[in-house]
Every structure is written in structure tokens, then in C-alpha cells.
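Weekly sync, protein design subgroup
Attendees: M.S., D.O., the rotation student, P.L. (late)

Item 1: inverse folding check
M.S. brought a backbone from last month's batch and wanted to see whether the design step gives back something sensible before we order anything. D.O. pointed out we never logged the input encoding, so this time it goes straight into the notes. C-alpha cells as presented (227 positions):
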């Protein structure tokens, strides 16, 4: 909420200066908030205490994404306490949202990646252990970003990696794109067309039917057709 207000204010200032647009057209209920991201992408099941995405004509804001399956369940960590699957799902949800706005994921200018070692620590975990775990997880996020379905060989976005003591539902990884300029000209969204984008369909098939989207990394097989 605060973020949306701040960015709305920045948008107002930016356009008043750069484009001489009337302030009156930008003040008011210019930001549209969407509680759930499009069909196939993971729903929240915590009472919809936030919007999964917000947008106006100029920017798209995507909520921090986690490794939830299509039923809204946080998937298990991969064997050895790895985060391949959770990070993959987070990026696929982000990509599905971008596709709704007719933009490739490569148009995201910057992300914040939050990593919390809490799920794999115990009373004898040392700071050196935590450092090792977070470095390993950061490498896993790096590998996922370079998959052809995400950035491939394209220039990567700017990024901050933050070690967090705790993430929602005790998760290990959360990925939040910063404000995304709406560079497409069509400006049609899947919310208008009611057609769920390809990445949302991939996510739905994977998490409901267990069809793994890539063989490049040891992602978990998910899903039993039941929520
Ligand atoms: C405690 O956590 C460390 C890593 O943080 C791990 O190496 C060790 O096996 C764990 N010990 C137990 C008893 O689970
Ligand atoms: C990235 O570049 C390498 C070598 O330049 C090439 O072999 C590889 O296929 C490229 N990958 C993608 C996803 O474009």
C-alpha cells in the first residue's frame, strides 16, 4: 500500500515534469489492484491481505513471489535443503504476470531476492553455516535466472540479495520485482482478454499434474490433482 502510494506520487511528479500531463488525470484512483494473479498462478490463501499486482498506465508492480503450488501450498524444499523448485515457481509466476501485460520477463529492470535460512537451521547452526547456505542458494537463483525460459543470455536485471531472518510462512526465498515500466504498446492484459498466459498454463500443469517444466535442474515433481 505504502509502496503504491509512493510510486503513484513519483509517477505524478515524473509526468508533470516530463510529459506535461495534467495532474488531474493521475490523481485519484489511477492504480488498479488485483488480488490474485491470473489463472494458473498460485493463489494466496492467507486472507488476501495484499494485492498480487497493481498497475496503472505506466507501471506494473508485482508482489514478492514464493514457491507456492497452484493450490497455494508452499512446496517442499528440494533434497538437501535446496531452493531450485521454489525459485523456479517464483520466477514462473513473475513471468506469467509479465505476459499478461504483453511484456517478456527480460523487461524487468530490477529485483530484490530475499533468502531466509530459518527452515534449514537448528541450535547448532553457526554464522559460517548460514553464510554457506545463503551463498549456495544465491547460486541456485543465479542458475534459474539464466534458464532459457527466463533471462537466458539476455542482460540480467539489477538486483539486491537480502538475507532475511523470516519470510512469510517460514519460506526460504521470495523474489520481488521493483516497479516495471509498461513498455508494451498494446497495453492489454489477461484480465481484459480472460486468456491465461502460457507461463501460467505451464505452472498449472506442473503443479496440478506433476509435469516438470525443465529437465535442466532437479526440480521437484509436484501435484496430485487435488487441492
Ligand atoms: C543443523 O543444521 C546444520 C546446518 O545449518 C546441519 O549441517 C546439521 O546437519 C543440522 N543438524 C541437525 C541435527 O539437524
Ligand atoms: C547462450 O550463449 C551460449 C554461448 O554463447 C550458447 O551456447 C547458448 O546456447 C546460449 N543460450 C541461450 C539460452 O541463448
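Designed sequence read out in the meeting:
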Amino acid at each position: 500500500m505504502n509502496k503504491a502510494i509512493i510510486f503513484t506520487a513519483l509517477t505524478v511528479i515524473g509526468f508533470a515534469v516530463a510529459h506535461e500531463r495534467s495532474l488531474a488525470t493521475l490523481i485519484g484512483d489511477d492504480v488498479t489492484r488485483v488480488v490474485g494473479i491470473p489463472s494458473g498462478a498460485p493463489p494466496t490463501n492467507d486472507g488476501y491481505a495484499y494485492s498480487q499486482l497493481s498497475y496503472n498506465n505506466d507501471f506494473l508492480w508485482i508482489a514478492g513471489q514464493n514457491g507456492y503450488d497452484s493450490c497455494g501450498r508452499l512446496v517442499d524444499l528440494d533434497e538437501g535443503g535446496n531452493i531450485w523448485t521454489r525459485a523456479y515457481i517464483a520466477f514462473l509466476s513473475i513471468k506469467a504476470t509479465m505476459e499478461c501485460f504483453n511484456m517478456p520477463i527480460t523487461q524487468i529492470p530490477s529485483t530484490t531476492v530475499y533468502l531466509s535460512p530459518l527452515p534449514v537451521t537448528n541450535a547448532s547452526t553457526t554464522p559460517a553455516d548460514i553464510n554457506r547456505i545463503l551463498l549456495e542458494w544465491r547460486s541456485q537463483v543465479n542458475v534459474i535466472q539464466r534458464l532459457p525460459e527466463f533471462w537466458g543470455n539476455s542482460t540480467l536485471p539489477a538486483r539486491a540479495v537480502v538475507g532475511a531472518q523470516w519470510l512469510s510462512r517460514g519460506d526460504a526465498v521470495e523474489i520481488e520485482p521493483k516497479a516495471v515500466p509498461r513498455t508494451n504498446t498494446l497495453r492489454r492484459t489477461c484480465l481484459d482478454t480472460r486468456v491465461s498466459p502460457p507461463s501460467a498454463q505451464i505452472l498449472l500443469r506442473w503443479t496440478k499434474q506433476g509435469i516438470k517444466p525443465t529437465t535442466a535442474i532437479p526440480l521437484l515433481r509436484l501435484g496430485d490433482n487435488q487441492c
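Discussion: The helical segments are 2-18, 23-26, 84-100, 127-145, 190-193, 198-209. Residues 127-145 form the longest helix (19 residues).
Action: P.L. to compare against the previous round before Friday.
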